[in-house]
Design a protein that fits this description.
Keywords: Carbohydrate metabolism, Cell membrane, Cell wall, Cell wall biogenesis/degradation, Glycoprotein, Hydrolase, Membrane, Polysaccharide degradation, Secreted, Signal. By secondary structure, the chain is an alpha/beta fold. Helices cover 40% and strands 14% of the residues.
């Protein structure tokens, strides 16, 4: 009876902690031409941990980020999505080797899932069957770990073959890149989510990327300003929380090493400070 009571208490505490974050998750990228140290990743993760308990990376091989992120996330008590970059080159083989190495030398107790590829179908880098083959290889590697495996893809590029191979669905949708006006952008995102739900065969669907820039060039009717980023962020947080949708915001930090508008999607600025348009309390209560 004591064990049952303890388990119930721990579940309740976990639920409270999970529900106390502004974001379900945040995406984290690094400059591969200036690789961070472990202490720098820890510093970034401590900043991120004020707003979420989940962080996603895009590659385990680049900058040896898989190893760094595992160590940093465990030190900062974050859960982690490990990404594997997949394209037309031999990147997958290198990612698989890196994943094998870190899975054999690090505990995976805080790894939420491994994401095999990001927008592979959108870029046309592989055929659907080729991506599925890579997903299966990762599943075999991690079978003893019990780690879930998926891919991240734009909302209109999933195939039945891919849906069948993954443990749950992660969809990307950027209404800014569609040129949608800010007034309808959050509802348009929700429409995309419902579409993916309709083809998911009942599997859980999460939003792996969405966001809005606060500077840069206008894209059709999408205008990047601090006010529009704030509007999209708060309304999207409100909708996803009300609908019980788990959403990973792109991105955690402004990526100043990227060109143009792509460097201005962050919740935090390049100095790791919360942008002046936001307050912690408002992010926690967006509706």
């Amino acid at each position: 009876m004591f064990k049952a009571l303890l388990l119930t208490t721990l579940v309740s505490i976990t639920t409270v902690i999970a529900g106390s974050n502004a974001f379900y998750g945040l995406n984290y990228g690094v400059n591969t031409n200036a690789c961070p140290t472990l202490e720098e990743v820890k510093h970034d993760f401590r900043a991120i941990s004020q707003y979420t308990n989940i962080v996603r990376i895009y590659s385990v091989k680049d900058c040896d980020l898989g190893d760094l992120a595992l160590k940093a996330s465990q030190a900062t008590k974050l859960r982690l999505y490990l990404g594997m970059w997949v394209d037309k080159t031999d990147s997958f083989d290198k990612e698989l080797s890196a994943l094998k190495r870190i899975s054999e030398s690090n505990p995976f107790y805080n790894v939420e899932a491994v994401i095999v590829g990001s927008e592979v179908m959108y870029r046309g880098d592989l055929q659907s069957s080729e991506l599925v083959d890579r997903i299966v290889k990762v599943k075999k590697l991690l079978k003893s770990q019990g780690t879930k495996v998926t891919t991240a893809e734009v909302y209109y590029k999933f195939t039945p073959e891919i849906i069948g191979a993954i443990d749950f669905v992660m969809m990307n949708a950027f209404t800014y890149w569609e040129g949608v006006p800010i007034e309808v952008a959050p509802d348009t995102l929700l429409e995309h989510y419902r579409h993916v739900q309709s083809i998911s065969n009942g599997k859980l669907v999460r939003i792996s990327e969405t966001g809005w820039p606060d500077q840069g060039n206008q894209n059709k009717e999408s205008i990047p300003t601090p006010e529009n980023q704030k509007d999209f962020m708060l309304k999207t947080l409100c909708i996803t929380k009300e609908q019980g949708i788990e959403m990973i915001w792109f991105s955690a930090i402004d990526e100043s090493y990227k060109p143009g508008v792509e460097s201005h999607f962050g919740l935090l600025d390049s100095t790791r400070k919360l942008k002046s348009e936001y307050t912690y309390d408002r992010l926690m209560s967006p509706c």
